[in-house]
Amino acid sequence: MKIFFKFLSSTLYPKRGTERNFMVLIIFIALFYINPTHSQNLNLQNFSISDGLPTTTINDIDQDEIGYLWIATDKGYSKFDGVNFTNYKQEEVNCLLIEKNKIYIGLKNGLLVLQNNKSTFFESKEILKIKLIHHKIILATVQGVCELKEDYIQPLEIHPQIDFSIINDIISYKNTVYIASIKGLWSIEKLYKPLKVEKLIEENTTSLLINNNQLIVATATKGLKIIDDHTIVKSVPNLENISSIKKRNDEIWIASPKNGIDVLEANTYIFKRKINKYNTAISSQINTVFKDNQNSIWIGSSNKGLYKYSSEIVVIKPEVFIENIAVNYKLIDSLNVTKLVLKSHENNISFSYKTINLKNPKNTEYRYQLNNDFTPWSHQNQVDFANLKAGNYQFTVQSKEGSLLSKKVTFSFFIETPMYQKAWFIILCIALLCLLLALFIELHIRKLNKKNQQKIDTLKVANHLLTLEQKALQLQMNPHFIFNVLNGIKALGNSGNSKELNKTISQFSILLRSVLNNSRLEEISLHDEIETLKNYLELEQKMNSKSFKYTIQTSLNNIDSEEILIPPMLLQPFIENCIKHAFQPNTSDAKIKLLIEVKNRFLHFTVEDNGIGFHQSKKVKIKSNHQSVALEVTKERIQHLSKYNSFSIEEIKEQNEIKGTKIGFKIPLKTDY
Known about the structure:
Organism: Polaribacter atrinae
InterPro entries: Bact_2-comp_sensor_kinase (IPR050640), HATPase_C_sf (IPR036890), Ig-like_fold (IPR013783), Sig_transdc_His_kin_internal (IPR010559), WD40/YVTN_repeat-like_dom_sf (IPR015943)
CATH architecture of the domain at 476-668: 2-Layer Sandwich
Keywords: Membrane, Transmembrane, Transmembrane helix
Helix content: 25-40%
Low-confidence stretches: 1-42
Oligomer: single chain
Protein name: Signal transduction histidine kinase internal region domain-containing protein
Number of helices: 10
Distance between the termini: 116 Å
GO molecular function, one term: phosphorelay sensor kinase activity
CATH class of the domain at 476-668: Alpha Beta
């Protein structure tokens, strides 16, 4: 410093003393102040109406996830990509909040919400600040605090002095909500019907900020108040008309609509420097300060537009976003789909994509691919695909800034096959042709059928006769049995035993009537079948020369026998066969046992006797030339009732001695309920 001072003295004023030293000092001081100012101005850029802004009054600034800068002005709001401003005319916009894919815009008469190229307006009092508190959108208005519901804005009842007061800011910190109003700073434990409302500062408070686990409160006339645990622990005076306070790295930037920007050290709150029209080319009327994702400071003034202040070089890897997708030149509502399914005529699709670099906005290049190789790099950020064929597609886009490449972003979509190319349409056409061919063949067959009608009628008659024959077989009962019954009735008449005669005639008539009635039906109840068997067995006991006993047992799992349906005359042939062939004439202890059980949705029948055995009885039949047609027909009927039939005949043996025969079969259980 001394060498520099002597150099200036000897060069500019070699012969003068005091006067020379004074001039050198002035030049040195001028150089000292000019150099920093010149350095700062190199990093400062101003945007005004000539650059595309609709006005020079900037009220608020925010940035979306793509990187666009959204700017609230007194003549609407604007979107800035670093090169161009896109302006949306509206009344004065006071504040902005961007949360995920929604943009909330605070107006004098309500709230405007933008999402997926659609806007929704909610009427309310003038909104001064929008905050996300406890996952809810909370509004600071000129008349209390409000909450944005699904389709309306709900005023919140907190305290009479808050509900009708102008609210400048609101923030949640350490389970406490702080409300800055023109009537002071308030703390509440919750927004909805708070139990404790405490006033911490009396004067008008304008802005709130959290810093190092402390709350910074900006007042209108008494500077900053630092609050920790509801107590003012520090004051920073000599700051007035504060419009907003923001933190940038380790600095607190304090904006004023009259005094420019004061910068404090964030840890000690010691003054570092002042930024205003006296030391930089910036307006002293500052409304807001915002730091973007590349660490640049954006300053909104009330008379000179927007300023960009870049003091650091931050290298950030670029990120590309698909902004809009248009199908047949109409924007789709949402991009949050895993795969877009389009109809066959929706085969014109457009993509617009963007990488925002607010430091070097013109340095971004893009390339894309659609199922094939990537295109060359270019500055084009939109592509149209026309008349795409049906099938699956994957659109991929990538951006770069210099040598830095972004991650690849993909979007899948599927175009349906035209109806006339679909398999079902082709099959339908083939089916129609086949149908026409079938109609032609049908006409030809009808002509042939006229010639063959007589043969068909003959077959129908033959089939009817077979049916009648089967019913006749169902009715078949041993003629010898009928002959014995009639002879028995005759003998009872001759003996004069009228009582037994009448009983026998009655039983025989009931048996014949039941056989005749049942023959007309395809199914009868198990109860009726058992009653018919009892009549038959009792008559056989009376009239047959062979003496025997019988038992009928049922195990139906609590099902009423009248509700179970079986084919008629299903059991009688087996009982008759036992009586006729199982016992010798001199057998003294002949027994027949019938067991009917319900098991696993099947009706099981078991007929047992203690006769001579199945094989011995067959030998007797062969010697007597007797053929049991009814028995064979009944076996065939059982086999045709179900594919799960299990007809069996086996001899009962004890110690290699034949003790009788056991016949078993099952049919599907069928009921009338």
